[in-house]
Amino acid sequence: MAGIYLHIPFCRQACVYCNFHFSTSQKSVHTVVDAMIREITLKRDRLLGETIETVYIGGGTPSLLPPATISRFWNAIQDAFPDINLLEFTLEANPDDLTPEYLQALRRTPVNRLSIGIQSFRDADLKFMNRAHHAGQALRAIHAARDAGFENLTADLIYGLPDMPLAAWHDNLDTLLELNIPHFSAYALTVEPKTALHHAVAQKKAAPTDSEHQAEAFLLLARRSAEAGYQQYEISNFALPGHYAVHNTAYWSGKKYLGIGPSAHSFDGYSRSWNVANNTLYAAALLQRGQFEETTEVLTLSERTNEYIMTSLRTMWGLDIDRAEALSAGGAKLQIERNAQRYLANGHMTQAGNILTLTDEGKLFADGIASDLFID
């Protein structure tokens, strides 16, 4: 079983926190799309023997594309990968793009799940983040999507902004939970290098994030979502029972996936590869030379084991010590059990049989705990 990810590297404007590869110039959209279609064809042998279950179009802002282009991608995927059992086809979308007309046209494509970039229901937050929509559009987009027949929805929220009081985050959660959508993701604001936010903080034009404030917001999020019936099945992802994101869950479980588009990553179980993060170089290689600009890294046994430790600890299913032992070809079990003892003792982790799971408080330190469990 495998998934396909398509990266659309275009946005109308740049969010202050975003460090993904994108361009605010849309002059090369058609050229890049043609190149992506070519890449799908050239990489048709990458997933031999695998059944394609998910397609995810992310970015950037995929909802800038007309639905006809979405169908074109799907036709190319069907031609290249005949073994398809499509469970989920996700399109990331900005609220301001989801007009009734766009949604009706989208219904005629294979897209059956929308990921809506809400980020906040407060105009002050949206202005700070330099989002292209306002709070009213965020609410209207969800209602319009449902009116058009899209029930499988997910929304993104960001918390821990420097000027977001805890009460405002509480109100954001109230608005979201009242909508009763089946899935949502919530992320703490991070100041990534080379972003507008990083520059603003360095120039003292914006306040840095506050880790204690973000921890309070996270614990409130965990409590409120659980009270509303959501399962925190991954640190940043929440679903009503049975509504987990199939594509993203495959990432966390180590399944194979193929990345298409500038900067997109692929994983075949043993190696990781990624395309050049430059629209011009990417398109020229594919359209002029019939090649792709790609870098590949073959993972060692310890690297594969450590990736599993990192991703599994983020989920409610936890870290299976026996699986880590098998991935490492021996030696991981004793090291993990020894290094986990202090986290079991301080309440940051629980153990049931051979499964280690983080508590809510432990999730605040997930990356550090995972690194302490890494094998040599």
Low-confidence stretches: none
Report mean pLDDT, rounded to a whole number. Answer: 96
Count of folded domains: 2
Cross-sheet strand order for the largest sheet: 7-8-6-5-4-3-2-1-9
CATH architecture of the largest domain: Alpha-Beta Barrel
Question: In angstroms, what is the radius of gyration?
Answer: 21 Å
Beta-strand percent range: 15-25%
- Net shape: globular
Helix content: 40-55%
Written as H for each helix and E for each strand, in order along the chain, the element string is EHEHEHEHHEHEHHEEHEEEHEHEHHEEHH
Largest sheet: 9 strands, mixed
Termini distance? 30 Å
- Continuous helix count: 15
Care to give the gist of this entry?
The chain is of the alpha/beta class and 376 residues long. It has helices spanning 29-42, 67-80, 100-106, 123-129, 135-147, 166-179, 196-202, 211-227, 246-252, 279-289, 301-313, 321-327, 332-345, 360-363, 366-373, and strands at residues 2-8, 52-59, 84-93, 113-119, 153-159, 183-188, 231-234, 237-239, 256-260, 265-267, 271-275, 294-298, 319-320, 349-352, 355-358.
Please describe what this structure looks like.
By secondary structure, this protein is an alpha/beta fold. It folds into two domains: 2-251, TIM Barrel (Alpha-Beta Barrel); 301-373, Arc Repressor Mutant, subunit A (Orthogonal Bundle), CATH 1.10.10.920. It contains 15 helices and 15 strands. The chain has helices at residues 29-42, 67-80, 100-106, 123-129, 135-147, 166-179, 196-202, 211-227, 246-252, 279-289, 301-313, 321-327, 332-345, 360-363, 366-373; strands at 2-8, 52-59, 84-93, 113-119, 153-159, 183-188, 231-234, 237-239, 256-260, 265-267, 271-275, 294-298, 319-320, 349-352, 355-358. Strands 7-8-6-5-4-3-2-1-9 form a nine-stranded mixed beta sheet, with helices on both faces. A three-stranded antiparallel beta sheet has the order 10-11-12, with no helix packed on it. Strands 13-15-14 form a three-stranded antiparallel beta sheet. Helix 3 (100-106) links the parallel strand 3 and strand 4. It is globular. The two termini are 30 Å apart. The mean pLDDT is 96.
